[in-house]
Structure formats: C-alpha cells, structure tokens
Amino acid sequence: MENFKVIYRILNILEKAMDYDEFDMNSISAETMKISEARWIKLMMLLSKEGYIDGVIIKQSLDGEYAMSVSSPQITLKGLEYLEENSLMKKAAKLAKGIAEII
Fold first, then answer.
1. How far apart are the C-alpha atoms of 56 and 47, rounded to whole Å?
2. How many CA atoms lie within 13 A of 62 on its CB side?
3. Three-state secondary structure string covering 18-82
4. 5, containing H or E segment
5. Angle at Cα 53 formed by Cα 4 and Cα 31, nearest 5°?
6. Is 27 left (phi over 0), alpha (psi -120 to 50) or beta?
7. What is this structure's pTM?
8. pLDDT on residue 96
9. Where does the record place a coiled coil (predicted)?
10. What is the reported pLDDT for 12?
C-alpha cells in the first residue's frame, strides 16, 4: 500500500510541475519520499514502463546495477488519468465512510 502512496505523490508533484519551466528533481527524490534509493529507482522504472511518466531512462547493466538518466521528467496523459481516477476513488471512499458513520 505504501508504494501506491509514493506513486501518487510523485505523479501529483509532476502534475503540479506542469506550471513551471524547470523541474526540481529533489521534489521527488528518494530522500523526499522517505524511501530507499533502490525502491525509488524501481518505482520510477514502473512509472516509466507503464507510461505514467516520460523523460526517465533506466538501464540495467550486465552486473544487475541500475543507472537512471533523467531529462525533464513529465507526467503523461495516462499519469493524469491515474491521478483523476484515484482522486475520485478517495472522494467516494470518504463519502462511503461518512454514510457508514451516520448509519
């Protein structure tokens, strides 16, 4: 579950960054997300592979190490859709919780 929270935070930050010309990588770093570097790289790989973000290239060397190259990361349309769907699900969950408390 924690992975999905980090994914949502990364996508949310990238969505807000659309208003700016330059992006600060520190805003989505492993340290900022409070996760290990290895987990951060794997999550970034997943986001890139699934088409939620662009501008991130991750390569694996023969010895299994990962190298990441970032050139202006950006959220994609698919990433925006993910944010929208999850926002609506959170609102529905809060509404359902409120109804359950009333009953």
1. 9
2. 0
3. HHCCCCCHHHHCHHHHCCCHHHHHHHHHHHHHCCCEEEEEEEECCCCCEEEEEEEEEECHHHHHH
4. helix 2-16
5. 55
6. alpha
7. 0.79
8. 57
9. none
10. 94
Locate 20 and state its tokens.
Answer: 């700016």
Predicted confidence at residue 74, as pLDDT, reads 94
CB atoms within 10 A of CB 33: 19
In Å, what is the CA distance from 45 to each residue of 20, 76, 91?
Answer: 24, 14, 29
Report CA-CA distances (Å) from 86 to 37, 38, 65. Answer: 25, 25, 33
Range among 46-55, 67-76, 80-89 rated most confident:
46-55
Residue type for 79, please?
G
Which amino acid is present at 93?
A
Distance CA 70, CA 75 (A): 13
Residue 101 has pLDDT above 70, yes or no: no
DSSP 17: G
Q: How many CB atoms lie within 10 A of CB 73?
A: 19
Please tell me whether residue 103 adopts helix, strand or coil conformation: coil
